């Protein structure tokens, strides 16, 4: 083990810190993390930790969620400029205007949103539980923000009227049907797994639709051996580690989230050393956001 990793492990132990990493992080960051997962898994983990310090290797809304759920803890975001472009596609002010137009609708917000947007929402969801969350609501009209593709995917499984905002994930939205067809030609017989943030016409061509951790569970548990993976390429490292003997190919080699890649080991080390940059959420915003997140976590 090199000196930088050794120093990170030492600092982590000295300061009672835990490192959480998203499945899209770089391989070396995933390998140094105590827990790697998708948005739902990371939110659940952040809500139950005993450690004094949480180092969040992901993007800004993920660290905000941890800070909202654990306001007494120190939450660090090693790359403070690691933002989520989709989260920036809707503001709390825009959501308030939307709520005025549809006062009878329930507001479901994807966790890929700011704390301010969460505070204006009735309940949060992730790609892993969006269908379940929407089905749990008594309202017939659902304002679904900000991901139009996830909203349209949810609409396939409910009779409720889904009113999606026109946001999107640039990584998944630019995957095309032509990419799927080419991947099938390159790897005949391989299962095609895609993320629900993909366009409807891409989803229609897939064998399965899963969140990132759902993909990992499927690859590890099924008897199939080859898979075409339609999400951010960082997940391939974890699949190789967790599902030995399986062959996983990227649906698109261009499926790279540049902001997820802004975290590196030197930034993790510096963050542990200085306990900065720290992510905090004002109490008035955190209270509303916490309610929406907790409602999601209470749905089983």
SSE layout:
Layout: H1 3-14, E1 17-22, H2 27-32, E2 35-37, H3 39-48, E3 53-57, H4 60-69, E4 74-76, H5 92-101, E5 106-110, H6 115-119, E6 123-125, H7 130-135, E7 141-145, H8 148-155, E8 161-164, H9 170-173, H10 177-186, E9 191-194, H11 200-203, E10 208-209, H12 212-221, E11 226-230, H13 235-242, E12 247-250, H14 265-274, H15 283-298
Parallel strand pairs: 1-2, 1-3, 3-4, 5-6, 5-7, 7-8, 9-10, 9-11, 11-12
Helix pairs in contact: 1-14, 3-4, 4-15, 12-13
Main location: cytoplasm
EC number: 2.5.1.72
Enzyme class: transferase
Total strand segments: 12
The first-level CATH class of the largest domain is given as Alpha Beta
Structural class: alpha/beta
> So, CATH architecture of the largest domain?
3-Layer(aba) Sandwich
User: What best-fitting shape do the alpha-carbon axes yield?
Assistant: globular
Count of structural domains: 3
Q: How are helices and strands ordered from N to C? A: HEHEHEHEHEHEHEHEHHEHEHEHEHH
The major pleated sheet works out as: 4 strands, parallel
As a percent range, the share of helical residues equals 40-55%
Tally of separate helices: 15
Q: Look at the structure and name the CATH superfamily of the largest domain.
A: NadA-like
Topology-level CATH name of the largest domain: Rossmann fold
Estimated share of beta-strand residues: 15-25%
Radius of gyration, in angstroms, nearest whole number: 19 Å
Distance between the termini: 40 Å
Low-confidence stretches: none
């Amino acid at each position: 083990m090199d000196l930088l990793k050794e120093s990170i492990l030492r600092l982590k132990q000295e300061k009672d810190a835990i490192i959480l990493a998203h499945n899209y992080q770089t391989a070396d960051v995933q390998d140094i993390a105590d827990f790697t997962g998708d948005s739902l898994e990371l939110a659940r983990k952040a809500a139950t930790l005993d450690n004094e310090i949480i180092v969040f290797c992901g993007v800004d809304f993920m660290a905000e969620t941890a800070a909202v759920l654990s306001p007494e803890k120190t939450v660090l975001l090693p790359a403070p400029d690691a933002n989520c472009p989709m989260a920036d596609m809707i503001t709390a002010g825009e959501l308030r205007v939307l709520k005025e137009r549809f006062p009878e609708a329930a507001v479901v917000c994807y966790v890929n949103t700011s704390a301010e947007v969460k505070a204006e929402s009735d309940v949060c969801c992730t790609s892993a539980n969006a269908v379940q969350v929407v089905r749990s609501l008594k309202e017939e009209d659902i304002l679904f923000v900000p991901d139009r593709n996830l909203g349209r995917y949810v609409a396939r499984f409910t009779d409720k009227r889904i009113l999606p905002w026109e946001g999107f994930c640039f990584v998944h939205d630019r995957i095309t049907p032509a990419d799927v067809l080419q991947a099938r030609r390159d790897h005949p017989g391989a299962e095609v797994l895609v993320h629900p943030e993909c366009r409807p016409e891409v989803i229609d061509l897939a064998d399965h639709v899963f969140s990132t951790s759902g993909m990992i569970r499927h690859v590890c548990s099924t008897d199939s051996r080859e898979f075409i993976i339609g999400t951010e390429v960082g997940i391939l490292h974890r699949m190789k580690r967790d599902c030995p003997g399986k062959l996983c190919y990227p649906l698109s080699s261009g499926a790279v989230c540049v902001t997820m890649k802004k975290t590196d080991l030197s930034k993790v080390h510096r963050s542990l050393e200085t306990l900065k940059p720290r992510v905090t959420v004002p109490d008035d915003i955190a209270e509303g956001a916490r309610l929406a997140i907790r409602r999601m976590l209470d749905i089983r």
